[in-house]
Structure formats: C-alpha cells, structure tokens
C-alpha cells in the first residue's frame, strides 16, 4: 500500500482521540465509584482523585440507614415493575391488531395514536385532568398517565409485521384458532426479542423518571428514588450555596458528602448489573425502530 | 432512517386521507365485515384507544382554558371566555423576551454542538480496525445514556461546586474558583456540554449503522487511485451518510424551541434565572406552583403551537429535499 506511513499516522491520531474521549466519559463515572469508597475528607481536600483513599464502607451503611433512600428505592421498584407490566400489556394490545392487514380501520387508529406524538394538551390541561380524576398523590398516577408510548407501539407493530410469518397465522386461523389464541400461542412466543427490548425501554424510563412524581406527588412517603436523589444531590447543594457554610454546618456536610457519591452508585446498581443486556437490546430496539420502521 | 420519515409521512397522509373521506356505505360494510371476523382484535385495542382519548385528547379539549378565565368550581366549560387576554399579558410581560431568548438560545446552542459531535465520533469509530478496541470504546461511550437526568445534574453539581474537583484543579494551578452552577454566564455551556457528554455515544449509533452500508469496493477503488484515509472519509463516507445527516439535522432543527423541562429545571436556581429560565419551566412555576392555570396554559399553548408549526415546516422541507435533491 502506498499510503502506509500516513495511514499509520492516521490510525495513531484516531486512536488517541478516541482514547481521550473515552477517558472523558469514563473518568467522572470512575471518580464517583472511587469516591463512594473513600473517606469524605479526602474528597473535599482533593487528595482523592484516582484510587479510593481512606477506604471504608461507611457511606454505604449510611445509605441503607437512610429511611428516605430505602423507601424511595422500594417505591421506584414498585413503580418500575407494575408500570412496565402495564406498558408491555398495553403495547401488545395495540401493536398486534395494528399489525394485521385484515384489521379494518388500523390506519385511522394509528393516526389517532401518532397525532399525539406531535401535539398535546400541554402540562396544565393534563394536570387539571389528573386532578379531576382524583389521581394526585396516588400510586396510579405514576403508572397510568404514561401507560403506553406511541413510538414503542410502532416498533412492536413493525416487528410483528416483518418477523412473524403471515402464513403461520393464516394456517392457524384455518385450523380454527381465534385471534387471541394466535397472539398468545404463536405470535408472542416468537416475539421474545422485541418483548425484551420493550421491557428494557420502559423499565429504564420508569427507573429514571422524576417529572411525573415532581408534578403529581406531594406525599414524601410515595416519592421515587429520583426525587430523593434530587433532594440530596441538587437541592442540598444549592441550599449550601445560598446559605454559605458555618462551622456546625461543615461537620454535617462532611457526613453527607460521602453519601452523595454512594447514593448515585446505589441508584444505578440495577442499571450497572443489566448494562450488558441493556446495551445489546437497546441498540437492537433502536435499530428495529429506525431502520425497519 | 429515511424510512422513518417516509413512514411518518405515510402515517400523516393516511391520517389526512382518512380524515377527509366520509364514511361511505361500502366502507361501513367493510368495517362491519372486518368487525364480525375480528371483533376480538377490536376489543383488544379498545382500552388503548380509551387511554389515548382520556389522557391525550381530553387535555387537548382542556386547552380552551387558555382563552378563558378558568375557575375550578365552574369547570372548563363553564368558565368565562376572555379571548386572547392571557396571551396579551404574556407578550407584554417582562419575561417574554427573556424566555424566548433563553429557549431559542439553548436550542440553537444544542443544535450547533450536540449535533455534529456524534457524526465525527461515528466517522472516527468507523476507522477503527481493532474490533476489541472499538467494542470497548462503544461500551464506555454508550453508558451515560442510561443515567437519569437527576444523576447527570447531580454529578455536574458534585464536580463543579466551589470545593469540587474542577475548582480544586483551578485552585491548584493558581486560579480563583468559579461558581459554575450559580453563574448565569455558565448555564448554557454547562447544559450543552453535559448533554454532549451524555448523548454523543448513543447518537452516533445511527451514523455507524449508516456507515456499514458503504460499499467496500468504492474504498478499494479509491485506494488503488491513491486516495488517503482522510480523502476517502471525505469523498466516500461522508457522502454516504449525508442523507441521514440531513434528515436528522432537519428533525433537530424542528425542535429548537422545545427545550425539555427536566434538565433545565434541575440546573436552575434563583441566581442563574436570567439565563436558565425557559418557557417550560416558566409554565411549571406559573401553573403548578402559583396555580395561574389559564395564564400558564396560554403560555404552554403558545410554545406547542410554535413547535408544531416548526415541525410541519421542517416536514415540508424534508419532503421537498426528499423529492428533489437527495433521493
């Protein structure tokens, strides 16, 4: 090859650039992990910047002693499991009929769904509706108003249309199999990949969301983890900025400093454990949605 | 990606055509026939339709309070019509230009920075021959996508506070610490660059996918002609992903006025309000916190109408380009 020298140079520069970018992404994440195992004093003085310094698990103990965090974690777990279950059922219920060519009216129904992607009532009318329905401060407000996402219906419908052989469904029909049985016994068992994608899409969404809770929940006992995180990580810090630091405050600050890093780790633990799946299936789902869609 | 657009257009034209057509007897007959055969499918989809009507279309009906003086006891329908009073009040208010400036400013800034980075990243990743290294880089840069907004802003605060890592570094080299989170001048940059940090990896996926479609024989031919790597990227890879780039650019450009609430709200505080207040956070404050329902509904409607118009315009342009120059 004629250009081997410049080629090598290119590869070198490219690799260095990518390494720098990777480092920029990974360092903050790594720092949080390292800090969660360190003595908070060293974090505040800047002595801890790579390896954990003054290794201890105190802040982990504190996280589990903190009633708000534990309660928030359990709440989020509830919202995520029930919410995802509802999401999945609703998505299948919409996507399957819409995937059938002999389902008359599917274009109208699809249009009704898709229109809401482009236009909506907005925050205030929605809020007033939820209020009128008496859903404020209930468990259900966290799982019902976002029961299904149009985009996911489209992904699932596309999957049904492109991957489940129509002949299979038709022959089942000839054998006297009803639509519901076709769905349950033929279509769904063949759709496990897309179901996995949906579960992950929805579950990550529930786990990470705070907006719904911020607007509709005022009872702290029902707060999801993200709202508790917001109190600890953001509001606490802002208060500090506004009030300045006094002597007694400093002590309190030190005790909560370690907690902040640890609570980030704990909040993302499920995500961390699932990450290999998340990455694979998310990319897959993303592709079904964009390429085939 | 092109297909998404086609699909969307498809769906929209379907919507238009079905909306226009009156239900003629033959269509009614077809529906009856289909219903008799697939009544269970209609049953299956009906709860979802009910959901959309209740939680998406009923709020659209509620938009009318923007033109009324909403009084809870009188209900949405019973409240008095006041025309454009609330809009007028918003346009005349001291906040109006500030909100427009901030909303548009953040949108354009995001578009200018967050948009090109994933493209460059994908082009660079595409050049990596070592599969293991490529996988490693991808695994790392996709990760922030899964962090919640609260965690990302929380990390921002932790690193940038007065005794955080960055300020420790600034002090170390002899500078004076900067109050990043409360300094209005820093808000937009922090918003945009933390966004880049979180989304660049994930957004590069679509371009990487487009790059896999590049015909390898083109590269071979160019190599025989003595083209360098950069030349090949410039003349083969970039033109190959250009349609994707254009489509995504148009889509992103269509949403410059719809800056999301979640992150701005978390990064906002009383000190940086002059640059951080956007329409969505204003609606939240006026509506949910101060219960000025009609006024904030009007502000919200103003924003969604602008967003909708931009989207339609952008769709129109996409169609034009779609038909003339790109395909």
TrEMBL record, chain A:
This is Sugar ABC transporter permease. SUPFAM superfamilies: MetI-like. It comes from Neobacillus kokaensis. Residues 73-275 form the ABC transmembrane type-1 domain. Pfam families: BPD_transp_1 (PF00528). The keyword Transport applies. PANTHER family: ABC TRANSPORTER PERMEASE PROTEIN MG189-RELATED-RELATED, POLYGALACTURONAN_RHAMNOGALACTURONAN TRANSPORT SYSTEM PERMEASE PROTEIN YTCP. Its main location: membrane. InterPro entries: MetI-like (IPR000515), MetI-like_sf (IPR035906). Belongs to the binding-protein-dependent transport system permease family. Signal peptide: none annotated. PROSITE patterns: ABC_TM1. Keywords: Cell membrane, Membrane, Transmembrane, Transmembrane helix, Transport. The chain crosses the membrane at residues 12-33, 77-96, 108-127, 139-160, 180-204, 258-278. Gene3D superfamilies: MetI-like. It is found in: Cell membrane. It is a multi-pass membrane protein. It comes from the Bacteria. The keyword Ribonucleoprotein does not apply.
UniProtKB/TrEMBL annotation, chain B:
The chain crosses the membrane at residues 39-58, 106-128, 140-160, 196-214, 234-261, 293-318. It comes from the Bacteria. The lineage of its organism: Bacteria, Bacillati, Bacillota, Bacilli, Bacillales. This is Sugar ABC transporter permease. Its main location: membrane. Residues 100-314 form the ABC transmembrane type-1 domain. It holds the Pfam family BPD_transp_1. Gene3D superfamilies: MetI-like. It is found in: Cell membrane. Belongs to the binding-protein-dependent transport system permease family. Keywords: Cell membrane, Membrane, Transmembrane, Transmembrane helix, Transport. It is a multi-pass membrane protein. It comes from Neobacillus kokaensis. CDD domains: TM_PBP2 (cd06261).
